[in-house]
Amino acid sequence: MRKRKLAPKLTPGEAKERWADAHPPFSHDEYVHEANRCLYCYEAPCIVACPTQIDIPSFIKKIAFDDLKGSARTILEANPLGGSCARVCPTEVLCEGACVYNRWDRPPILIGRLQQVAMDHVFEEKYEPLPPEPKRPEKIAVVGAGPAGLSCAAVLARKGYGVTIYDAQEKAGGLNTYGVAMYKATPKYSLREVASIRKLGVRFRQGVRIGNRIKVSDLLSGNAAVFMGPGLGKETRLGIPGENLRGVMPALDFLEEIHVKPVDTVRAGNTVVIVGCGNTAIDAARAAKRLGATNVIVLYRRTENEMPAYQKEHDEAVAEGCEFRWLTNPVKIMGRGTVTGIRCVTMKLGAKDASGRRRPVPVKGSEHTIECDQVVYSIGQGVDTTFMAAIEGLKTDRKGLVRVNAESMETSVPRLFAGGDCINGGKEVVNAAQDGKVAANAINEMIKNAKGVPHDRSHS
Amino acid sequence: MTDLTADLAGIRSPNPFWLASGPPTNTEYQVARAFDAGWGGAVWKTVGEPIVNVSSRYSSVDLGGRRMMGLNNIELITDRTIEDNLREIESIKRTYPDHAVIVSLMVESKREVWHEIVKRSEDTGADGLELNFGCPHGMSERGMGSAVGQVPEYAEMITGWVKEVARTPVIAKLTPNVTDVRPIAQAAFRGGADAVSLINTINSITGVNLDTLVPSPTVAGLTSHGGYCGPAVKPIALNMVSSIAADPEAPIPISGIGGIEKWQDAAEFILLGSSNVQVCTAVMHYGFRIIEELTGGLATWMESKGFETIEDFRGKTVETVTNWNDLDLSYKVVAEIDRKTCINCKLCYIACEDGAHQSIELVKSKGEFWPKVMDDLCVGCNLCHLVCPVDGCIQMVEVDAGKGDTWKKRMAKLEG
Question: Which of A421, A433, B58, B187 pairs with B149 at a CA distance of 20 to 30 A?
Fold first, then answer.
């Protein structure tokens, strides 16, 4: 029987080095130089590529002109979560991916890093670039203090509404606080953004899980409108024997532990197997490597061509020493009490399935065992169906995602709006920020124009 | 074989690059380093009765992250004694007999004072004298420098005094702080000058510090206007050089000065009539070593053009600079955008739409809007070609070679 081995313990110095900020702030010289590289395109493609449509050439020109306050205002007008998005956005597939420099075979403008300059300025100088308008009497409730809820709350608070956020966790921020790769943004960045939103007058009620004592219907009767951004439920389980062994866990739990404890106190297994190849799986793989795991092996039942993760994330994981085994599917987790290995079968790609991807089928007689000390899985996250089912009149789609009017984010329940992962199944922070902003503007319209939401009510 | 030897009014140097009078030519130590690095000549920092300089002295204009596009100074002439300067000049000339060593002079406007300094300067063995009629700050308040260079009669008179005793060529250094530089060049010519050098620095305030609300360089909370130089001033200098080169009343060799940083700048000054060039700001920015890139680039270009000597192309461009009234009104170019290299930044579109003649439209293709020139509306102004960041993407294409239809001819026809 193989004995479970832990990763070699890191000294605090080593831990600090491994978890260093992947995007250290630009110095004045660096950001002026980079900002001046921007061509200031007309009808710039980077704006179109940004889900919140920040006027990127304008905020960059303001940085070039040393007007960081004006720059922050431009960012926050379009994206209330400009601070966290600067760090966690997959810019290479969004704004930077659309930069005209790519067409010119030159490195694109580092838009995320420049946005970070303007937003760091706000947080470090502690000022509010967009002060709230005079107070209004209407109250709004927001369910979930993740990116969607925070964005909605910030926009409404700036318009003068009294906003209360209800959130089940101890700290606000949702996945920004508990789930984002720490080398992109530590909880510190998420929490200072939360603090800035609190300063706008938003009330936070942490540790309150809506659906228990307080129901959504209670919030609807006590408020002018309710926005919900509860995110998704638990990660989909593997559904194979051995899943309950010690050392087997969903990726979000694994990542959360690093966020709530000092990283040099968290021990990973010496060999960590990651099951799944989405962005969360890769975050977990890279985190395991940083925790000191000697071997990190990512298993995916299809190939690199089909992986849901961004290419850049994969490439960086490879560069950091993570190993990828394609066409490998786990069938059983081995061990007695504690995990010692994972039994896998080799796959091959067959005919296309409903998703248009070639369906993996097992190769006969290809079973093999990978010895390991920890198994972390991330193969998808479903909606919290119990929570949704409890809301009377709420329409969801086949996957259980909440259906909303795309123009207003209003659900089938009047005055109940929704956004973020619960409507899109799990996208980026920036998508949630946009949903929250759109919903906030629709709520404002609805209240100001007491007749109701001025859009058609067909649900997408 | 390319020969870079230059000759300005009989003063020969191994190449046309001289250090202009300024901080880099303040000491024998510096000039020796410069000659070792490959500079062809040096005009010593202006010698005269020693003055006292202030602290601080320089300020600059940055552009788009590029430092020192323009440099401003409120430094005066040398603050070392005449004896120290002349002794070092004599020593350097002895050590470097083949390099051009010029003494820049500025003394009070008295005939005997000028006579004395000219004689003492020439006793060093220097190859020539440069009369500083250009310094625009400080010295001008004391009736020297540009105070002389702005009044043709004074310039002619002092040049005349110098020529009464000078045995070496005399160069009058001109100020650009005049509406037309030609009368000053003519005056220097009438006074007997063997050459003119231009431009000296331009009156300037480079900016105001928006925290302290005082311009730089700041001296105890105040400033004074300074002299502007560096790459930003080259176009002004080129225009002045070419106007003198084309002036029949000032048939005098020219030493070109003003923002020369690249070999291309030097070639342009020579094409517009300069016999050699003088450089200062580029050395203050990068050091003497930049001479390697200057001489190397110039020689390579000359070779590619089949020019064997500086004289082969000196002044070749002068006759292409004419009066606006002699330009052909029937000649026409239009812009052509190469879709293959276009990166679709649309800077051409917005420049034309807001800043020029509304001749570019956006046409949808493959899900994107692309700029397209409307040939019938395009006036051929060049603006889109200038703003386009991609080399060669927007070309100006000749659509009418012209029929010699100038404004002057049209007016003549009307009057006739």
Answer: B58
Q: Do B347 and A36 touch (CB under 8 A)?
A: no
Q: Which of A33, A37, A39, A60 to mutate to test the interface with B (most CBs of B within 10 A)?
A: A39
Instruction: Give me the sign of the Cα torsion angle B278, B281, B286, B287.
Output: positive
Whether A53 and A77 map to the same domain: the answer is yes
Q: Chain B partners of A101 at a C-beta cutoff of 8 Å?
A: 343
Asked, for residue A74, whether it belongs to a domain, the answer is yes
Structural domain harbouring B345: 324-415
Residue B218 shares a structural domain with residue B108: yes
**Do residue B275 and residue B302 come from a single domain?**
yes
Q: Determine the 3-state secondary structure of A63 from DSSP.
A: helix
Question: If you search the block for the tokens 């977990």, which residue do you land on?
Answer: A284
Give the end of a domain, one of A75, A101, A125: A125
ipTM: 0.87
Are both B281 and B160 inside the same structural domain?
Answer: yes
Contact A36 B65 (CB under 8 A): yes
Does B293 share its domain with B408?
A: no
> How far is the C-alpha of A125 from the C-alpha of B263, rounded, in Å?
47
Does residue A453 lie within any of the structural domains?
Answer: no
Q: Rounded to a whole number, what is the largest CA-CA distance in chain B? A: 81
From CA B232, how far away is CA B265, in angstroms rounded?
A: 12
The reply to whether A454 falls in a domain is no
Q: Is residue B329 part of a domain?
A: yes
Indicate whether B252 and B340 sit together in one domain: no
Domain-located, residue B1: no
> Which residues of chain B lie closer than 8 angstroms to A57, CB-CB?
none
Per-residue pLDDT of chain A (460 residues; tens, 9 = 90+): 567 789 998 888 888 888 888 888 999 999 999 999 999 999 999 999 999 999 999 999 999 999 999 999 999 999 999 999 999 999 999 999 999 999 999 999 999 999 999 999 999 999 999 999 999 999 999 999 999 999 999 999 999 999 999 999 999 999 999 998 888 888 999 999 999 999 999 999 999 999 999 999 999 999 999 999 999 998 999 999 999 999 999 999 999 999 999 888 889 999 999 999 999 999 999 999 999 999 999 999 999 999 999 999 999 999 999 999 999 999 999 999 999 999 999 999 999 888 888 899 999 999 999 999 999 999 999 899 999 999 999 999 999 999 999 999 999 999 999 999 999 999 999 999 999 999 999 999 999 987 444 444 444 4
Residues of A with CB under 8 A from a CB of B: 32-33, 36, 39-45, 64, 100-101, 103-104
A372 and A398 part of one domain: no
List the CATH number of the domain containing B376: 3.30.70.20
Contacts of A100 in chain B (CB under 8 A): 343-345
B70 & B96 share domain: yes
A193 is a domain residue: yes
Chain B residue with CA closest to A28: the answer is B65
Containing structural domain, residue A55: 38-125
